[in-house]
């Protein structure tokens, strides 16, 4: 009986020893696995994520200022006049007057004189002329007489040019056709100007019929009236 119990004790002790050794070996293996995982590369994945460029960073070309265009010269930068740079005579620098009139064959010939009261300027061509009464034009404006040339005229301060106005007497026409009307002014536009000058007159009678021109004007000539 005692011999059997001792043998049974040895038989029970051997498996317990084997189990203990197995548990110890597994613990050792587990420790080694944990150590190698702790040294592995989660830090490397963090580094590569932080080195990637941000998508919101603006491109340098987007903030580059555009070049400012240079304005081209406008047409108002140029001045009219002759080849020597003399400007055209403006209405504001001219004065208008009448020279000595002459009569012949039912017409009156009277010089219209333009005098330069400003700086040196150039004029050329035909003035525009018409009769007025109480601020209204009477009849047709003067027709142009192209029998003499229209040459450029340079006027220094105080110098004059003149054009000859022919006035056909209103009495030469049937009154019902002419419709004679007393005048009070001549309206004069210097060549190439939009503003006018006035000359007071009361000795002339115009025709209110605009289809019956009684005025004819020559081109400007240098000098005042003779």
Automatic annotation (TrEMBL):
DUF4232 domain residues: 89-219
Region Disordered, as annotated, extends over: 35-92
Provenance organism: Bifidobacterium mongoliense DSM 21395
Bias (Low complexity) ranges: 39-76
Stretches that traverse the bilayer: none
- According to UniProt, the name of this protein is DUF4232 domain-containing protein
InterPro entries per the UniProt record, alphabetical: DUF4232 (IPR025326)
């Amino acid at each position: 009986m005692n011999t059997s119990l001792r043998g049974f004790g040895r038989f029970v002790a051997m498996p317990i020893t084997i189990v203990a050794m197995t548990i110890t070996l597994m613990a050792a293996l587990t420790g080694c696995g944990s150590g190698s995982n702790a040294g592995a590369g989660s830090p490397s994945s963090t580094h590569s994520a932080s080195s990637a460029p941000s998508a919101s960073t603006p491109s340098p070309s987007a903030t580059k200022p555009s070049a400012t265009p240079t304005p081209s010269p406008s047409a108002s930068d140029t001045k009219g006049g002759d080849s020597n740079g003399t400007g055209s005579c403006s209405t504001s620098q001219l004065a208008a007057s009448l020279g000595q009139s002459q009569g012949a064959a039912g017409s009156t010939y009277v010089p219209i004189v333009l005098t330069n009261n400003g700086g040196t300027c150039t004029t050329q061509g035909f003035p525009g002329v018409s009769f007025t009464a109480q601020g209204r034009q009477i009849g047709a404006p003067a027709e142009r007489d192209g029998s003499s040339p229209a040459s450029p005229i340079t006027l220094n301060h105080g110098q004059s040019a003149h054009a000859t106005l022919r006035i056909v007497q209103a009495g030469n026409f049937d009154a019902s056709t002419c419709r004679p009307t007393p005048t009070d002014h001549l309206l004069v536009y210097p060549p190439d100007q939009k503003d006018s000058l006035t000359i007071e007159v009361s000795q002339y009678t115009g025709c209110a019929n605009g289809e019956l021109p009684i005025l004819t004007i020559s081109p400007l000539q240098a000098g005042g009236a003779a």
